[in-house]
Write a structure and sequence with these properties.
Blueprint: H1 2-26, H2 32-61
Helix pairs in contact: 1-2
């Protein structure tokens, strides 16, 4: 399951980080610090999300 979670993390983290950066830019916060914080937050939030998605996929297979 760890391998599936790793593959999912690579996809989910880029999507969440990109969404967070777009949200920050739309809010008018165009400083480098705000953009980096949003990107890092997206990458951090993606870890438990990818683990939950992988677990749900494994549970549905069985």
């Amino acid at each position: 399951m760890m391998r599936l979670a790793s593959i999912l993390y690579s996809l989910i983290s880029t999507a969440l980080a990109g969404t967070a950066v777009i949200a920050v830019l739309t809010a008018g916060m165009v400083s480098l610090n705000a953009i980096l914080v949003a990107a890092v937050a997206g990458f951090v939030v993606a870890a438990p999300v990818s683990w939950m998605v992988a677990r749900r996929l494994y549970d549905e297979e069985a």
